[in-house]
Amino acid sequence: MTPTPDVHESPPGAQSAPEPSSDNSLLPAHLISGLVVALALAGVGIFAIVEGLSYGLGDSENIIGPGTAPVTLGGLLLAGSLSIGAREAYKLRQGLKASPTSSGINTQGAREYLLRSILVPILIVALFGAGIYASQYIGLFIALSATVLACGLLIERMSLLKSAILAAATMLIGFVLFDVLLSVRFPSSTVGF
User: Please, where are the H alpha helices in 56-157?
Assistant: First the structure.
């Protein structure tokens, strides 16, 4: 009996498509976006340190001043981001040494990945910034739920129903936590919440 040919086999003499390599073709894009995030976090850390120092670190009566926590957290954030940046730069350098040509790199996919990895965090910060600004006019809980709704729809690409449920749950948790359990009253807004 003759064996039946496998439907996945190519005819004799035909060139098969190259198998995907085991290494990640977006590796440089991942590493470059890691460097960008590390630099952004380092900037936030430096800003926190500078602002914290303007509050003062303490005096002879009070060892811990109002600027101690921001300076400490900013220093930790700066150290962590420098560690991440150094690791990503080392990996990128090793990857470029191993493959100095860009023949195995999917440049279109790398561009799309970099675009997403840079624009999405900027969009998140912009949405939360708009929510913080709007909170003085529409109230904190409404602004918080609107921001969560917008992030659910635009960033996570959730359905309107799921985003609305998440936004309502966030507002309810915020109300119960701050107003009921902690008895923290937020300033009233133009709307009155």
Answer: 68-98, 107-138, 140-154
